[in-house]
């Protein structure tokens, strides 16, 4: 199923080295219904551009810490993996345009002392959003640089007080076949699920994102709430989360259930561990024509390598 609509092929998207120069932290006095009002909380942007929908993307950073420019908003919002809608990356934005994600709440439970259910308004009130410019490296071999708005998952986990027996965190995405055409097919064991080891989930780089480019998330990027784990392949960064559960056992995940020999639980970006069907040594940055080398842990080795000391990264792929 492919609908016709005016989306530029990704090869036509030119990198725009614009935007601003430094990371800033944002106060979040916003409500989801205020939607694009988030822009008003940002420092005035020196460069911004309107997209088709009249949204003005803004970011305080211009590049990642390695000096590579942000991937244009147009590409970030029109080239998406989101199998609940479609396996066609360029069809997702259109198919997801009317996905109803308000109201929304997230149930946090399992091995915690203070289980709770939080609405998106509660989350916005409790946890100030900050901008994090991260590389996103898809297991398929393409990548982007995205200015997320989010907060460390650790803050949410501390609030629910994990029990001593908790060792993993399980994430469950929404099941809504009425609005998600991909869920009407029996191809995947819906809902999408993911998991992290507790220490990975508590790491400062691991965030829950509610926005990007200074705007609340659009449906195609996982509105209203998605995980972002920048040193792991993109499929770990589960969209449209409705449940977060602390567990003792390593959780099963959608991809490790569907193809266990191809997608493991860890999924750390690693140029030296090929996917069984292709090399992971290089990647194509969206907007660039040449492939570039893939970096161990997606360039975040300094921060995260310690999590895997003594582990065989080939066996724990
Ligand atoms: N619920 C859900 N989350 C998901 C996916 C999905 O199909 N369903 N795809 C994953 C994959 S493979 C990638 S690469 C990223 C893409 O995120 P983006 O579209 O915001 O760039 O989302 C991840 N999260
Ligand atoms: Mo991906």
Describe this structure in words.
- By secondary structure, the protein is α+β, with helices and mostly antiparallel strands.
- It has one domain: Sulfite Oxidase, Chain A, domain 2 (Alpha-Beta Complex), CATH 3.90.420.
- The chain contains 8 helices and 12 strands.
- It has helices at residues 38-41, 73-76, 92-95, 120-126, 153-160, 198-202, 254-258, 301-304, and strands at 105-110, 116-119, 130-137, 142-152, 168-173, 193-197, 207-212, 215-216, 226-228, 241-247, 282-285, 292-293.
- Strands 3, 4, 7, 8, 9, 11 and 12 form a 7-stranded mixed sheet that branches.
- The chain is globular, with a radius of gyration of 18 Å.
- The structure holds the ligand Nc1nc2c(c(=O)[nH]1)N[C@H]1C(S)=C(S)[C@@H](COP(=O)(O)O)O[C@H]1N2 and molybdenum atom.
- Keywords: Metal-binding, Molybdenum, Oxidoreductase, Signal.
- Heterodimer of a catalytic subunit (MsrP) and a heme-binding subunit (MsrQ).
Q: What's this, in brief?
A:
13% of the residues lie in helices and 20% in strands. With 317 residues, it is an alpha+beta fold. It holds the Pfam family Oxidored_molyb.
Overall mean confidence score, pLDDT: 86
**Hetero groups bound?**
the ligand Nc1nc2c(c(=O)[nH]1)N[C@H]1C(S)=C(S)[C@@H](COP(=O)(O)O)O[C@H]1N2, molybdenum atom
Q: Provide the helix percentage.
A: 10-25%
- Which topology does CATH recognise? Sulfite Oxidase, Chain A, domain 2
Rg calculated over all Cα atoms:
18 Å
First-to-last CA distance = 33 Å
- The domain count comes to 1
Q: Spell out the CATH superfamily.
A: Oxidoreductase, molybdopterin-binding domain
Which CATH architecture? Alpha-Beta Complex
Task: Figure out the total of helices.
Answer: 8
Number of strands: 12
Helices and strands, in order, run as HHHEEHEEHEEHEEEEHEEH
Strand percentage lies at 15-25%
Uncertain runs: 1-52
Q: How would you describe the shape?
A: globular
Domain Oxidoreductase molybdopterin-binding: 102-255
InterPro entries: MsrP (IPR022867), OxRdtase_Mopterin-bd_dom (IPR000572), OxRdtase_Mopterin-bd_sf (IPR036374), TAT_signal (IPR006311)
Subunit structure: Heterodimer of a catalytic subunit (MsrP) and a heme-binding subunit (MsrQ).
Binding site for Mo-molybdopterin: 80, 83-84, 138, 221, 226, 237-239
């Amino acid at each position: 199923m492919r609908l016709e609509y005016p989306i530029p092929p990704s090869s036509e998207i030119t990198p725009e080295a614009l935007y601003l120069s430094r990371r800033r932290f944002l106060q979040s006095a916003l409500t989801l219904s205020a939607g694009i009002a988030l822009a008003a909380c940002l420092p005035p942007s020196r460069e911004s551009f309107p997209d088709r929908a009249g949204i003005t993307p803004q970011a305080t950073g211009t590049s990642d810490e390695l000096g590579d420019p942000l991937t244009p908003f147009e590409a970030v919002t029109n080239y998406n993996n989101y199998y609940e809608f479609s396996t066609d990356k360029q069809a997702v934005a259109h198919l997801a345009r009317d996905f109803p994600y308000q109201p929304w709440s997230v149930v946090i439970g399992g091995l915690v002392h203070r289980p709770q259910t939080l609405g998106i308004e509660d989350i916005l009130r409790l946890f100030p959003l900050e901008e994090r410019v991260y590389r996103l490296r898809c297991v398929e071999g393409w990548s982007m640089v995205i200015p997320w708005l989010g907060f460390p998952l650790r803050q949410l986990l501390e609030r629910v007080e994990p029990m001593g027996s908790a060792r993993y965190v399980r994430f469950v995405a929404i099941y809504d076949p009425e609005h998600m055409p991909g869920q009407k097919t029996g191809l995947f064991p819906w809902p999408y699920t993911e998991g992290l080891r507790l220490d990975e989930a508590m790491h400062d780089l691991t965030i829950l994102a509610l926005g990007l480019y200074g705007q609340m998330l659009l449906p195609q990027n996982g509105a209203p709430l998605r995980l972002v784990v920048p040193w792991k392949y993109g499929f770990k960064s589960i969209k449209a989360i409705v449940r977060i559960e602390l567990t003792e056992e390593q959780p099963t995940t959608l991809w490790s259930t569907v193809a266990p020999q191809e997608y493991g639980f860890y999924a750390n970006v690693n140029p030296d561990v090929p996917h069984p069907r292709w090399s992971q040594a290089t990647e194509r940055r969206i907007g660039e024509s040449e492939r570039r080398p893939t970096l161990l842990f997606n360039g975040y080795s300094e921060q995260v390598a310690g999590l895997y000391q003594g582990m065989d990264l080939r066996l724990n792929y």
